[in-house]
Design goal:
two-stranded antiparallel sheet
């Protein structure tokens, strides 16, 4: 809930879209879109600053700096989104991505209501 509320606030304040995600026990994957790269950087900075004290008490959730990978085509986007949605399976946490609750898999792949955070509509993604 801490993450989802912060994402919503930061999404609105930084004029960007959240198009996919997966919250893992020790890291997060995002698919973010903005016309301006600075908005993505500001989103990441603000989001980590606002959640640091709430998530950090027992140790290093935010150990690493965010890695940003530019998305240059719809095919690259779909490949990266599939990677995100299958991360928990590769980590051995579940055998089916549908079994992981903190992911956009339910909304995007299965067309179901979100388990906590509702992503933006993929149909508006301005890449081909």
């Amino acid at each position: 809930e801490v993450l989802y509320n912060t994402w919503e606030l930061c999404r609105k304040n930084n004029n960007l879209m959240i198009l996919g995600y997966c919250v893992m026990p020790n890291h997060i994957h995002f698919m973010l879109w903005s016309e301006l790269g600075a908005n993505v950087q500001q989103f990441l900075h603000t989001m980590t600053a606002l959640t640091f004290k709430k998530l950090q008490p027992g140790g290093g959730f935010w150990k690493e700096r965010p890695r940003v990978v530019p998305i240059i085509s719809r095919q690259v986007f779909l490949t990266k989104l599939d990677y995100i949605h299958r991360n928990q399976v590769r980590a051995g946490l579940v055998t089916d991505p549908a079994d992981w609750l903190h992911s956009s898999y339910h909304q995007i792949v299965l067309g179901q209501e979100s388990n906590g955070f509702r992503c933006d509509d993929l149909s508006v993604l301005p890449i081909r």
